[in-house]
Amino acid sequence: MPLVELHVLEGYNPEEKQKLGTALTNAVRFVVPAAPELVTVLIHDIPADNYYRGGEQRIPAPARADPVEIVKDYLTAMEDRDLEKARAMLGGGFTMTFPGTAPMHSLEELIEWSKPRYKFVTKTYEGFDAMQGSGAAAIVYCRGTLQGEYHDRRRFGGIRFIDRFEITDGKITKQEVWNDMAEVKTNA
Amino acid sequence: MPLVELHVLEGYNPEEKQKLGTALTNAVRFVVPAAPELVTVLIHDIPADNYYRGGEQRIPAPARADPVEIVKDYLTAMEDRDLEKARAMLGGGFTMTFPGTAPMHSLEELIEWSKPRYKFVTKTYEGFDAMQGSGAAAIVYCRGTLQGEYHDRRRFGGIRFIDRFEITDGKITKQEVWNDMAEVKTNA
Amino acid sequence: MPLVELHVLEGYNPEEKQKLGTALTNAVRFVVPAAPELVTVLIHDIPADNYYRGGEQRIPAPARADPVEIVKDYLTAMEDRDLEKARAMLGGGFTMTFPGTAPMHSLEELIEWSKPRYKFVTKTYEGFDAMQGSGAAAIVYCRGTLQGEYHDRRRFGGIRFIDRFEITDGKITKQEVWNDMAEVKTNA
Amino acid sequence: MPLVELHVLEGYNPEEKQKLGTALTNAVRFVVPAAPELVTVLIHDIPADNYYRGGEQRIPAPARADPVEIVKDYLTAMEDRDLEKARAMLGGGFTMTFPGTAPMHSLEELIEWSKPRYKFVTKTYEGFDAMQGSGAAAIVYCRGTLQGEYHDRRRFGGIRFIDRFEITDGKITKQEVWNDMAEVKTNA
Amino acid sequence: MPLVELHVLEGYNPEEKQKLGTALTNAVRFVVPAAPELVTVLIHDIPADNYYRGGEQRIPAPARADPVEIVKDYLTAMEDRDLEKARAMLGGGFTMTFPGTAPMHSLEELIEWSKPRYKFVTKTYEGFDAMQGSGAAAIVYCRGTLQGEYHDRRRFGGIRFIDRFEITDGKITKQEVWNDMAEVKTNA
Amino acid sequence: MPLVELHVLEGYNPEEKQKLGTALTNAVRFVVPAAPELVTVLIHDIPADNYYRGGEQRIPAPARADPVEIVKDYLTAMEDRDLEKARAMLGGGFTMTFPGTAPMHSLEELIEWSKPRYKFVTKTYEGFDAMQGSGAAAIVYCRGTLQGEYHDRRRFGGIRFIDRFEITDGKITKQEVWNDMAEVKTNA
């Protein structure tokens, strides 16, 4: 106790069920202070033949792509400057906000903005937090440290950053970025 | 469909059940791309007399305090410089990291750090994201903008920030802060 | 076995639950040839606080008026020539078809049609069959015998009839009538 | 919501489950005015190994033959004057009542009765209504129009009819017929 | 896991539910080697209005009297030589078998049999084991030691005994007794 | 009604499920005086992929060996004087008590004790009663009659006995024996 029973149309794979098991367990624990090992989740797979809504059978929808994986793929594509791949991952109405910028709407704007700031930058990840919001978007946080090289060939590293993403229907629709780059430069 | 049934010991109030309803709905939607209005949550309250684990009755635990409310109360106490109240909300092993700082362990360190930076600062909230992590801690994100006054009486405002909190057993055990203050100062 | 569990929002009264118990039992028996005493129905009343669809509470709808009672009230009003009461029970697009008539749309047409046929007529009921159709309408059959008086003062009786009604949102939208009146007259 | 869960012994085929899905949905809607697309039916197939009554396994009974199909087959056999086939479909204690007749007990009586009335008759179906009654019998209504030829070679058509059948253990045990034939003849 | 859900008609009291909780937990553990604290029992009380078998409501039966209590009361009455009370607790067809006796049918026979053996005897209980058999009878084992006095005024004590009882419909229908009295006497 | 639903990890075979069906039925009947054929048990096999405790999958434990079979095998081994086999069935802390003995700890002690008493003895079984106790041990009662041969070549038979066993983790940890042997000898 507490016990969660989930009835879903048959068709989700073990990895997707594990994600459901984890998400439902944590959803309960958000309110009920039960030790995790006392929270049980049972999934009941319902064959399509055995489920009727309004007297009609329904087709199970394939599981959502994991929003954390989407974010990781996008960040890798950006580090690799594979703009074509990254662009294909953006949804309609995409905006991104970086320290000191107004919302930008294309990756080209970002490239322009970053050009004077550093020659290149890569990310070391410390952790991801992900959740479905009450609206359409899933929210993914990614935090860690930046390292790279300024145009004067000085190296930098260990600069804290955090990104917040919104993913809607498998596409990134919003990216917000905070980091300590200016702080570090100021104090350098 | 999908349908979630939650069996819990009787004793949660309507507000707590609403939070369970929302959290369980979003947990399912994190994996299953169902329209929200097709995700159903049923809560079955089980009287203590009707629940046995190992053949023994169990006492329901009171619901966790809402971690978002804990964070809001803490941030208000800090804005009000009510250090006593804020300190009472911190858990063992508390650390906080601000732009350019190493992890600090007491509010006094923070006050020292901030003294040369600004006379005062207040927060305008844009949004909160909260979730139970797989470990003991709940995670709360708070984002928005800062406004306040520097020591030279200049006012500032609209500076983006984001805070990440970990709350364990109702106490804040970790605070991490990112903001654009240095970026803004640099460009000022 | 078979076992039916019905989860509904709390608020239905014992009489309405008995009707659900009967209707669900017979729905199963329509396909599964179980002895009635082996068909079990459990109703789980879900308090509004314990039910969420799309993360939101929902208000239970009051039970439908019993369509058989609607039909009985209407037939009584017609026997009593209480046209005002009967007319108030008709829904939009109402049609009625009697032996040898095209579909009529008002009670006045019926009165005109029946005038030359008999002075008055009353009904003795033998049985009602009622069911929800797959569309919006509930269907009620009423059968029995007619008795009354012709204009030449001859009495008649024992004439078989059957009426088929459609009831939509508590209003009668269709009435179809068959009976042996012409047959009896022909043979008289 | 409402949600119906049906637990039955494994062994029903998709078509039989669809009939259960429809019948249970309509049983709920007979009392609860929910939009059809909000009525959910889940069927849980229970393997024989997983079901015990009185501590003993039970054998699932094959589904009932569809009573509407039984009625259609019977009516076709009668139109074809295939009395042998039709007779095989009748159950013990069978009675049939036609306009102006007392209850008849054999198809031969019906043939005798109809001989002077018409040379042949066929049916055009407008609709069927079927339900399990609370007793042993399923009830099937069939309505539509008759066409055929009188002995004087005049054709007739468009004559409204309705039949009510009772089907017990897969056999027809009662047939009642109403139609406008006399009405039409009288007015012809 | 394992999880047992019991649906019963409302009306059992907390003590009776505790007995159900214990009995169901042990029933599962008889086959499944789960640690007791991982066996969960949920009892769902079903109000009479919410339960239909064959479309009809059913009245909950009062819980059985605890067969262990029945046995204790009977043994106390026998120790007190309250034969009237003890006799009232016996069911039809009662038999009792003591060491070296054929089945006896009345308490008087037992008194006769015991007269030459000892002046009086009392029991010290070590433990009871009780279970419902697959037939009508519950089975209760009672074991411990006997003490008392022989006719020659010698005291005895610590003599092992075990009784097996069958209780049907709240009445004792069978008693079988084994003990070491003869063994002890032989060796004395 | 009553209805028991058992959710267990998939993997138990039909024989083990039958034992669960019987044990759960009798557990309910121990308290609720329902006719056996009205007690229903449904077993829901949960695939390992569909069960999470603390967000983690769990491995189903193999069913316990049937404690009645263990007792039968042990008693057969003892009759056959196959001490090696019998000894392998004993658990740590094993004790056994026979009429007039203090608790013994090894089969050798028993052999010594029985030597002067009879040349050999075999058992005819009348019945077994078995149940899981609330502690770790399952309890098995075995009763019937003894037959065999004394050292003076006299045969004996029909001597009532009862054994009580405790079985923990598949091993016999306690055996207690009562019988009428001394009674019979005394009276012989």
TrEMBL record, chains A, B, C, D, E, F:
The keyword Isomerase applies. Pfam families: SnoaL_2, Tautomerase. Keywords: Isomerase. It comes from Palleronia caenipelagi. Residues 71-174 form the SnoaL-like domain. GO terms for molecular function: isomerase activity. The keyword Isomerase applies. The lineage of its organism: Bacteria, Pseudomonadati, Pseudomonadota, Alphaproteobacteria, Rhodobacterales. It comes from the Bacteria. Signal peptide: none annotated. Residues 2-56 form the 4-oxalocrotonate tautomerase-like domain. This is Tautomerase.
